[in-house]
Amino acid sequence: MINILILSAGTRNKVVQYFRKELEGKGRVYATDCSELAPAIYEADEAILVPRITEPGYLEKILDICREKEITGVFSLIDPELTMLAEHREEFLAVGTTPIISPAEAVAISFDKYRMFEKLTELGIPTGRCFMDLQEFERAVEKGEIAYPVFVKPAKGSASININKVTCREEVELLCRHNEDMMIQEYMDGTEYGADVYVDMLTGKVTSIFVKEKVKMRAGETDKSVSVKDAKLFGLIKKFVESVGFCGIIDIDIFKVDGTYYISEVNPRFGGGYPHAYACGVNVPAQIIRNLEGAANEENIGDYEENICMMKYNEIMIRKL
Q: What domain of life does the UniProt record list for this protein's source (predicted)?
Protein backbone atom coordinates (compact mmCIF):
# COMPACT_ATOMS: atom_id res chain seq x y z
CA MET A 1 0.00 0.00 0.00
CA ILE A 2 1.15 3.51 -0.88
CA ASN A 3 -0.64 6.11 1.23
CA ILE A 4 -0.18 9.81 0.45
CA LEU A 5 -0.76 12.71 2.84
CA ILE A 6 -1.35 16.12 1.22
CA LEU A 7 -0.94 18.96 3.71
CA SER A 8 -2.72 22.33 3.47
CA ALA A 9 -4.71 21.19 0.44
CA GLY A 10 -6.82 24.37 0.34
CA THR A 11 -8.30 24.83 -3.12
CA ARG A 12 -5.87 22.57 -5.00
CA ASN A 13 -8.59 20.07 -5.86
CA LYS A 14 -6.91 18.88 -9.05
CA VAL A 15 -3.72 17.71 -7.33
CA VAL A 16 -5.76 15.62 -4.88
CA GLN A 17 -7.81 14.18 -7.75
CA TYR A 18 -4.65 13.22 -9.68
CA PHE A 19 -3.17 11.29 -6.76
CA ARG A 20 -6.44 9.45 -6.14
CA LYS A 21 -6.53 8.45 -9.80
CA GLU A 22 -2.91 7.25 -9.86
CA LEU A 23 -3.28 5.35 -6.56
CA GLU A 24 -6.56 3.64 -7.44
CA GLY A 25 -6.43 0.06 -6.18
CA LYS A 26 -3.06 0.41 -4.45
CA GLY A 27 -3.36 3.11 -1.82
CA ARG A 28 -5.26 5.98 -0.23
CA VAL A 29 -5.01 9.77 -0.30
CA TYR A 30 -5.44 11.81 2.88
CA ALA A 31 -5.71 15.60 2.79
CA THR A 32 -5.48 18.11 5.61
CA ASP A 33 -6.37 21.73 6.16
CA CYS A 34 -7.11 23.97 9.14
CA SER A 35 -10.47 24.93 7.64
CA GLU A 36 -13.50 22.75 6.94
CA LEU A 37 -14.19 25.15 4.06
CA ALA A 38 -11.13 23.97 2.10
CA PRO A 39 -12.75 22.18 -0.86
CA ALA A 40 -9.74 20.07 -1.84
CA ILE A 41 -9.83 17.98 1.34
CA TYR A 42 -13.19 16.50 0.28
CA GLU A 43 -11.62 15.14 -2.90
CA ALA A 44 -9.41 12.83 -0.81
CA ASP A 45 -10.27 9.37 0.49
CA GLU A 46 -10.30 10.98 3.92
CA ALA A 47 -10.33 14.65 4.99
CA ILE A 48 -8.53 15.56 8.21
CA LEU A 49 -8.88 18.88 10.00
CA VAL A 50 -5.71 20.05 11.76
CA PRO A 51 -4.60 23.15 13.72
CA ARG A 52 -2.96 26.08 11.96
CA ILE A 53 0.70 25.45 11.19
CA THR A 54 1.64 28.21 13.66
CA GLU A 55 -0.07 26.43 16.58
CA PRO A 56 2.11 24.64 19.17
CA GLY A 57 2.19 20.90 18.60
CA TYR A 58 1.39 21.10 14.88
CA LEU A 59 4.37 18.98 13.83
CA GLU A 60 3.52 16.32 16.40
CA LYS A 61 -0.06 16.23 15.11
CA ILE A 62 1.13 15.59 11.54
CA LEU A 63 3.56 12.91 12.72
CA ASP A 64 0.71 11.24 14.63
CA ILE A 65 -1.37 11.19 11.43
CA CYS A 66 1.53 9.64 9.55
CA ARG A 67 1.80 6.86 12.15
CA GLU A 68 -1.94 6.22 12.44
CA LYS A 69 -2.66 6.22 8.69
CA GLU A 70 0.61 4.48 7.74
CA ILE A 71 1.55 7.31 5.39
CA THR A 72 4.17 6.45 2.79
CA GLY A 73 4.82 9.96 1.47
CA VAL A 74 3.86 13.48 2.56
CA PHE A 75 4.01 16.87 0.87
CA SER A 76 2.54 20.33 1.33
CA LEU A 77 0.97 22.73 -1.14
CA ILE A 78 1.90 25.96 0.69
CA ASP A 79 5.27 27.66 1.19
CA PRO A 80 5.25 28.16 5.00
CA GLU A 81 5.08 24.39 5.55
CA LEU A 82 7.90 23.35 3.23
CA THR A 83 10.69 24.39 5.59
CA MET A 84 9.11 22.30 8.37
CA LEU A 85 9.03 19.20 6.18
CA ALA A 86 12.62 19.68 5.03
CA GLU A 87 14.07 20.45 8.46
CA HIS A 88 12.25 17.57 10.20
CA ARG A 89 12.90 15.02 7.47
CA GLU A 90 14.49 12.48 9.83
CA GLU A 91 11.50 12.58 12.20
CA PHE A 92 9.18 11.72 9.33
CA LEU A 93 11.46 8.94 8.12
CA ALA A 94 11.50 7.55 11.66
CA VAL A 95 7.73 6.94 11.46
CA GLY A 96 8.02 5.40 7.99
CA THR A 97 7.01 8.48 5.97
CA THR A 98 9.08 10.06 3.19
CA PRO A 99 8.81 13.86 2.93
CA ILE A 100 8.47 14.74 -0.76
CA ILE A 101 10.57 17.88 -0.55
CA SER A 102 14.02 19.18 -1.49
CA PRO A 103 16.85 19.24 1.10
CA ALA A 104 16.58 21.99 3.72
CA GLU A 105 19.41 24.05 2.17
CA ALA A 106 17.78 24.06 -1.27
CA VAL A 107 14.45 25.08 0.29
CA ALA A 108 16.16 27.89 2.22
CA ILE A 109 17.77 29.23 -0.97
CA SER A 110 14.40 29.14 -2.74
CA PHE A 111 12.77 31.26 -0.05
CA ASP A 112 15.53 33.88 0.00
CA LYS A 113 15.43 35.65 -3.36
CA TYR A 114 18.80 37.32 -2.88
CA ARG A 115 20.49 34.03 -2.01
CA MET A 116 18.89 32.55 -5.13
CA PHE A 117 20.33 35.44 -7.16
CA GLU A 118 23.78 34.72 -5.68
CA LYS A 119 23.50 30.98 -6.42
CA LEU A 120 22.41 31.54 -10.03
CA THR A 121 25.27 34.02 -10.52
CA GLU A 122 27.72 31.52 -9.03
CA LEU A 123 26.52 28.85 -11.49
CA GLY A 124 26.81 31.26 -14.43
CA ILE A 125 23.07 31.06 -15.16
CA PRO A 126 21.43 34.27 -16.43
CA THR A 127 19.19 36.01 -13.88
CA GLY A 128 17.99 39.54 -13.22
CA ARG A 129 20.33 41.69 -11.12
CA CYS A 130 19.36 42.11 -7.48
CA PHE A 131 20.38 44.52 -4.74
CA MET A 132 19.86 44.49 -0.99
CA ASP A 133 21.83 47.70 -0.50
CA LEU A 134 20.15 50.92 -1.65
CA GLN A 135 23.43 52.79 -2.15
CA GLU A 136 24.87 49.95 -4.23
CA PHE A 137 21.75 50.04 -6.39
CA GLU A 138 22.00 53.82 -6.85
CA ARG A 139 25.66 53.51 -7.90
CA ALA A 140 24.65 50.89 -10.48
CA VAL A 141 21.99 53.28 -11.83
CA GLU A 142 24.54 56.09 -12.11
CA LYS A 143 26.90 53.79 -14.03
CA GLY A 144 24.10 52.76 -16.40
CA GLU A 145 24.26 49.12 -15.27
CA ILE A 146 20.56 49.08 -14.42
CA ALA A 147 17.66 51.37 -15.28
CA TYR A 148 14.11 52.09 -14.13
CA PRO A 149 11.57 50.61 -13.85
CA VAL A 150 12.63 48.03 -11.22
CA PHE A 151 10.82 45.68 -8.88
CA VAL A 152 10.97 46.24 -5.13
CA LYS A 153 9.89 43.15 -3.20
CA PRO A 154 10.48 41.29 0.07
CA ALA A 155 13.58 39.11 -0.25
CA LYS A 156 11.74 36.34 1.58
CA GLY A 157 8.17 36.94 0.38
CA SER A 158 5.82 34.62 -1.52
CA ALA A 159 2.54 34.61 -3.45
CA SER A 160 3.46 37.93 -5.13
CA ILE A 161 2.64 39.80 -1.88
CA ASN A 162 3.99 43.36 -1.54
CA ILE A 163 5.70 43.37 -4.94
CA ASN A 164 5.95 46.85 -6.45
CA LYS A 165 7.02 48.00 -9.88
CA VAL A 166 8.61 51.43 -9.35
CA THR A 167 9.81 54.07 -11.76
CA CYS A 168 11.92 56.50 -9.72
CA ARG A 169 14.43 56.79 -6.90
CA GLU A 170 11.94 58.37 -4.48
CA GLU A 171 9.61 55.37 -4.67
CA VAL A 172 12.48 52.94 -4.09
CA GLU A 173 13.69 54.88 -1.07
CA LEU A 174 10.17 55.07 0.38
CA LEU A 175 9.54 51.35 0.07
CA CYS A 176 12.94 50.38 1.47
CA ARG A 177 12.61 52.81 4.37
CA HIS A 178 9.17 51.63 5.47
CA ASN A 179 9.63 47.88 4.96
CA GLU A 180 12.31 45.53 6.25
CA ASP A 181 14.32 43.10 4.14
CA MET A 182 13.35 44.64 0.79
CA MET A 183 15.20 43.68 -2.37
CA ILE A 184 15.54 45.71 -5.57
CA GLN A 185 15.35 43.54 -8.67
CA GLU A 186 15.96 44.28 -12.32
CA TYR A 187 12.70 44.50 -14.27
CA MET A 188 12.59 41.73 -16.86
CA ASP A 189 10.71 43.12 -19.85
CA GLY A 190 10.13 39.94 -21.79
CA THR A 191 8.03 36.79 -22.14
CA GLU A 192 7.31 34.94 -18.91
CA TYR A 193 7.40 31.15 -18.66
CA GLY A 194 6.79 28.58 -15.95
CA ALA A 195 8.45 25.17 -15.69
CA ASP A 196 7.11 22.17 -13.79
CA VAL A 197 10.12 19.97 -13.05
CA TYR A 198 10.44 16.58 -11.39
CA VAL A 199 13.73 15.47 -9.87
CA ASP A 200 13.88 11.75 -9.16
CA MET A 201 14.08 11.20 -5.39
CA LEU A 202 16.33 8.15 -5.83
CA THR A 203 18.78 9.29 -8.52
CA GLY A 204 18.73 13.08 -8.07
CA LYS A 205 18.34 13.45 -11.85
CA VAL A 206 15.71 15.51 -13.65
CA THR A 207 13.24 13.10 -15.25
CA SER A 208 10.56 15.46 -16.60
CA ILE A 209 10.22 19.13 -17.53
CA PHE A 210 7.06 20.87 -18.74
CA VAL A 211 7.31 24.49 -19.92
CA LYS A 212 4.39 26.84 -20.45
CA GLU A 213 4.26 30.42 -21.65
CA LYS A 214 2.21 32.43 -19.17
CA VAL A 215 -0.55 34.26 -20.99
CA LYS A 216 -2.39 35.62 -17.94
CA MET A 217 -1.63 35.69 -14.22
CA ARG A 218 -3.95 36.13 -11.23
CA ALA A 219 -2.85 36.54 -7.58
CA GLY A 220 0.62 35.24 -8.43
CA GLU A 221 -0.62 32.07 -10.17
CA THR A 222 -0.91 31.10 -13.81
CA ASP A 223 -4.47 31.58 -15.03
CA LYS A 224 -3.98 30.95 -18.76
CA SER A 225 -0.97 29.39 -20.47
CA VAL A 226 0.23 27.57 -23.58
CA SER A 227 2.71 24.68 -23.74
CA VAL A 228 6.09 25.29 -25.41
CA LYS A 229 9.26 23.25 -25.97
CA ASP A 230 12.86 24.43 -26.27
CA ALA A 231 15.86 22.08 -25.92
CA LYS A 232 18.09 25.01 -24.93
CA LEU A 233 15.79 25.88 -22.01
CA PHE A 234 15.48 22.21 -20.99
CA GLY A 235 19.28 22.03 -20.76
CA LEU A 236 19.51 25.22 -18.71
CA ILE A 237 16.87 24.00 -16.25
CA LYS A 238 18.50 20.57 -15.89
CA LYS A 239 21.91 22.11 -15.17
CA PHE A 240 20.49 24.51 -12.59
CA VAL A 241 18.24 22.04 -10.76
CA GLU A 242 20.79 19.27 -10.46
CA SER A 243 23.59 21.67 -9.45
CA VAL A 244 21.58 23.09 -6.55
CA GLY A 245 20.43 19.64 -5.44
CA PHE A 246 16.67 19.99 -5.66
CA CYS A 247 14.51 16.92 -5.17
CA GLY A 248 10.93 16.00 -6.07
CA ILE A 249 8.58 18.53 -7.65
CA ILE A 250 9.67 22.13 -8.22
CA ASP A 251 8.12 25.09 -10.03
CA ILE A 252 10.38 27.64 -11.77
CA ASP A 253 9.65 31.16 -13.05
CA ILE A 254 11.60 32.13 -16.17
CA PHE A 255 11.82 35.18 -18.42
CA LYS A 256 13.01 35.36 -22.02
CA VAL A 257 14.50 38.73 -22.97
CA ASP A 258 16.14 39.33 -26.37
CA GLY A 259 16.53 35.60 -26.96
CA THR A 260 18.12 34.84 -23.58
CA TYR A 261 16.42 32.84 -20.82
CA TYR A 262 16.69 34.22 -17.28
CA ILE A 263 15.75 32.09 -14.27
CA SER A 264 13.88 34.24 -11.76
CA GLU A 265 12.38 32.30 -8.84
CA VAL A 266 11.85 28.75 -7.63
CA ASN A 267 9.02 27.20 -5.60
CA PRO A 268 9.97 23.73 -4.26
CA ARG A 269 6.40 22.40 -4.53
CA PHE A 270 3.57 21.89 -7.03
CA GLY A 271 2.89 25.18 -8.80
CA GLY A 272 -0.62 26.50 -9.33
CA GLY A 273 -0.26 25.83 -13.06
CA TYR A 274 0.69 22.13 -12.72
CA PRO A 275 -2.73 20.91 -13.99
CA HIS A 276 -1.62 22.10 -17.43
CA ALA A 277 1.34 19.72 -17.32
CA TYR A 278 -0.74 16.77 -16.11
CA ALA A 279 -3.33 17.33 -18.84
CA CYS A 280 -0.49 17.21 -21.38
CA GLY A 281 0.73 13.85 -20.08
CA VAL A 282 3.51 14.97 -17.71
CA ASN A 283 2.50 12.72 -14.85
CA VAL A 284 4.36 13.81 -11.71
CA PRO A 285 2.09 11.91 -9.25
CA ALA A 286 2.95 8.65 -11.06
CA GLN A 287 6.67 9.48 -10.78
CA ILE A 288 6.33 10.22 -7.07
CA ILE A 289 4.47 6.95 -6.49
CA ARG A 290 7.11 5.02 -8.47
CA ASN A 291 9.85 6.49 -6.27
CA LEU A 292 7.93 5.63 -3.09
CA GLU A 293 7.66 2.06 -4.37
CA GLY A 294 11.47 2.01 -4.56
CA ALA A 295 11.87 2.34 -8.33
CA ALA A 296 13.67 5.11 -10.21
CA ASN A 297 12.04 7.00 -13.09
CA GLU A 298 13.50 7.15 -16.57
CA GLU A 299 14.39 10.54 -18.05
CA ASN A 300 11.52 11.70 -20.25
CA ILE A 301 12.07 15.42 -20.69
CA GLY A 302 9.82 17.36 -23.05
CA ASP A 303 7.50 14.45 -23.86
CA TYR A 304 4.36 16.51 -24.54
CA GLU A 305 2.67 18.42 -27.34
CA GLU A 306 3.24 22.12 -27.97
CA ASN A 307 0.54 24.78 -28.36
CA ILE A 308 -1.86 23.17 -25.89
CA CYS A 309 -3.69 25.88 -23.95
CA MET A 310 -4.84 25.84 -20.33
CA MET A 311 -7.68 28.14 -19.30
CA LYS A 312 -8.71 28.14 -15.64
CA TYR A 313 -12.32 28.84 -14.73
CA ASN A 314 -14.36 28.89 -11.53
CA GLU A 315 -16.08 25.82 -10.12
CA ILE A 316 -18.03 25.31 -6.90
CA MET A 317 -18.45 22.59 -4.30
CA ILE A 318 -21.66 22.26 -2.25
CA ARG A 319 -21.59 20.36 1.05
CA LYS A 320 -23.48 20.31 4.34
CA LEU A 321 -21.19 21.43 7.16
A: Bacteria
